[in-house]
Amino acid sequence: MRTFPQWLMHHAGERPHAPALREKAFGIWQTTTWLELQRMVGALTLGFEAAGLRAGQHMLVVGENRPRLYAAMLAAQALGAVPVPLYQDAVAAEFVWPLQLAEVTHAVVEDQEQLDKLMEVRGECPLLTHLWVDDPRGLRHYSEPGLELLDTLLQRGLADYDANPLCLAGLVNERSPEETAALFFTSGTTGKPKGVVHTHATLADRAQAGQRFDRLHCEDEVLAYLPPAWIGQNIFSFAQWLVVGYVVNCPESPSTVAIDLKEIGPTYYFAPPRVFEGLLTSVTIRMEDASAPKRWLYARCMDWAKAIGPKRMAGQALSFGETLRYRLGDLLVYAPLRNALGLSRVRVAYTAGEAIGPDLFTFFRAIGVNLKQLYGSTETAVFVCLQPDHEVKADTVGVPIEGVEIQVVEGGEIWVRSPGLLKGYYKNPEATAEVLTAEGWYRTGDAGFLDAGGHLKIIDRAKDVGRMQSGALFAPKYVENKLKFFPFIKEAVAFGDGREQVCAMLNIDLEAVGNWAERRGLPYAGYVDLAGKPEVLELMRGCVEQVNADLAADPMLAGCQIARFLVLHKELDADDEELTRTRKVRRGYIAEKYGVLLDALYGGRQEQFIETRVRFEDGRTGSVSATLKIVDAQRVAVAAKEAA
Question: Is residue 251 predicted with pLDDT exceeding 90?
């Protein structure tokens, strides 16, 4: 077992001129080799040490995936300091609690935007004395105390490092795998985010277990485009990158990810369900704009894919006719589609973060993408359950992998024991005691069960699974995921625990519904106007009633059919605290904030006026108001269906 700086030095010694990182700048991919990365880390290590960063201190890191930010994290770890990655799209006020809790003294940020946030809250964080910025654009007239360009620090450090290259090895060899490697903050779905402490040993152990499970190797390619503060991205593009030694590619900007994905053609791909939902939405929009012959060909080939693709991916024998149809479909539709999405070279693709809709999951596997689900959390260093090749089920998250024990306790909650468990919550022994038992079990808070084949099936968060007044099971996340399979629905929030029926609040997907409206000559002035159109409400009703028909076929969840719904007048937004930074719905907060709408849904009203305060991207606040129509949806009479 090594620390991450030791893994870096291992690769620099074994494969000095192999690519470690690529970054796209001004349209051109720039490569950093392992030896060049070691030199950069060595220079930053000496620079940070000269600036007073010491073992045990915390260093803030905020920005997109950038090679020099990765190097900064490694340099801090080489000194025994602890990187604290935070979400780059968070507003300034969200930085205050982590900075105060971790007593952060040093910070490395990507650009002027992130620096401005720290300057805004610096008065509340007096311990923050050193600020380094990677991108110098826009900083000519800044004179903040302790502010310095990362370039300046790097140049000073390079002079010292080149004079004594062995000094890095001396510092790194003093470090132990049992030391803290990083402090990750939870999404804060129900309250203040908690700081999760992970050691080099916990993160590296799970990274190695994942490597062995999927036979990853140094020739693999990864695209790092998700927030580094999310442990899923950190594991795939930092911990596992250093353990395996594959190449991490950093896009030029969030707006170029789709183009960069096609250029790189990653072999190992990771994305939360919302990314796959976006990919499917783009496909649906393009096909709706295609000519009638192309739409017919696509529909016919997709019928073949849905019938044959899952059998093929499961390794089952296909008949001659099935093989021929699938090859023809692959030639005409599936291969061009994978290429257009940038997934043509993917050998292993994972989705995690929250449950993915079975229909969405099946679509990608049907067209030949080896998409699998994994189960884990920030506290478990991600890798708990993975789906083996040829044993992939849409409704499970795989089997416990090497080193993991699972038990389902009374009430259906899942407990996990693993070498990858958190060391604890930072400065929060009470919360640590709530989730870690004396025997080393971690209480996940998720409800589920192991099926006959040993695969874990997650129903929902244990606290969210409830009962209707009739006694029927209510699983809101399951219902929401089925709604979000439709490209026209971007977000959904279902309510029903302890109530006589299920009601839902929806967000339309502005791009998909806007495209649908334009093709029908339906004018609209913006999101609020489009969301309230009678034609759009009928479109939503069709989606909801299709979900009801699907739910009616499941005896356990037939009672979750949606009786009434409305389309919200604004998109749910993390800046308005309705979503977490990982885009998880804060259901309790939404129920409180939109209590008047919830009362209208359950009070039998046909419409309800509401005015809501919103925060714009530039920090300004305003209000959005509308009179929302409430729509009744038809439910399938289960008894009648069974009798028929």
Answer: yes
